[in-house]
Amino acid sequence: MRLSVRAAATVAIATLALAGCGGSSSPSGSGAGAAPSSGSSSAPSTAGSSAPSSGTSAGGDLKIGVAYDVGGRGDQSFNDAAAAGVDKFKSETGATVQEAAAVNGESDAAREERLTQLAEGGYDPILVVGFVYATALSKVAPQYPDTHFAIVDSTDAKGANIANLTFAEDQGSFLVGVAAALKSKTHNVGFVGGVDTPLINKFERGFKAGVEAGKSGTKVQVKYLTQPPDFSGFGDPAKGKTAAKGMYDAGADVVFQAAGGSGAGVFQAAAAAKAMAIGVDSDQAKTAAASVKSVIITSMLKKVDVASYDFIKSVADGSPLTGEKVYDLKAGGVDYATTGGQVDDIKSTLDDYKQKLISGAITIPSK
């Protein structure tokens, strides 16, 4: 397998300059209201890449590889948060960036090939975005011990040259759960998860706990869009819209989505129902389509941009991160958004809960 993958990688590397990635060349997911383009490929994209400019600061000679999750750039959520950290480092140093995105339904072998292409191409560090890459990274990283890898949202891939960048999603979700309960007039809210996985269950668990803390007895409707191994729930706005519409029709007036690009559909349903919605990962009141921004009362911020920047900079500084690093409330890794001012009236309450979570006065159930 290793020989066949490397052979494929050699061919792909020879055509990198011509390769394209749908996720990085045009918006997809929540911004465009569409699933990932079938034009996405396992070959890294040169879109957005540039050679280091003269006079760049330390790190300008780095060749950074990025393997995005389904949807790639343009999902205005998880992948775009990671991309923001990469872009920040690139703008500061002039580093070269090579990108590729996963395609829904692809195999671990395809993901392994994508990571191999980047490693064979001399990209170091390589940022791997999403737990779906864990199996592939576990195979590829040991073959390139001098290459520094980081994977977001997984501790399943471990190694001396792997950093595991994880988050306290339950803490951030708790805060927006409190907000949902306090803003709801029907005492009925909803949670839409993209794919029924332990990671997204963590969002649900925190949200439910926050709702109960905010207003005990508030009903929480729950719907997952797909079940593994079908990960299209992270890139299907139509499914998100249908799920959220059902919740609004059943009496919910606030719906929190942890569904990647499918969240665009949740926002559309909220607008149609003249109801409220809560974004995820990025501050989506800033990034969503203009027609739905007003329905987004807050977003659960998962600062993947901070984690991706930290990792890349650690390699540039000669002290690369390895092992697990948890970005929780205390570390500034999760939070809630205030764009639009729709939670200003409850901000003091939310901040009080934030401090209680940080101090340990409040703990979130593990199940």
UniProtKB/TrEMBL annotation:
<dbReference type="InterPro" id="IPR003760">
    <property type="entry name" value="PnrA-like"/>
</dbReference>
<comment type="similarity">
    <text>Belongs to the BMP lipoprotein family.</text>
</comment>
<dbReference type="InterPro" id="IPR050957">
    <property type="entry name" value="BMP_lipoprotein"/>
</dbReference>
<keyword id="KW-0732">Signal</keyword>
<feature type="signal peptide">
    <location>
        <begin position="1"/>
        <end position="19"/>
    </location>
</feature>
<feature type="region of interest" description="Disordered">
    <location>
        <begin position="25"/>
        <end position="57"/>
    </location>
</feature>
<keyword id="KW-1003">Cell membrane</keyword>
<feature type="domain" description="ABC transporter substrate-binding protein PnrA-like">
    <location>
        <begin position="68"/>
        <end position="366"/>
    </location>
</feature>
<keyword id="KW-0449">Lipoprotein</keyword>
<dbReference type="GO" id="GO:0005886">
    <property type="term" value="C:plasma membrane"/>
</dbReference>
<protein>
    <submittedName>
        <fullName>Basic membrane protein A</fullName>
    </submittedName>
</protein>
<dbReference type="Pfam" id="PF02608">
    <property type="entry name" value="Bmp"/>
</dbReference>
<keyword id="KW-0472">Membrane</keyword>
<dbReference type="InterPro" id="IPR028082">
    <property type="entry name" value="Peripla_BP_I"/>
</dbReference>
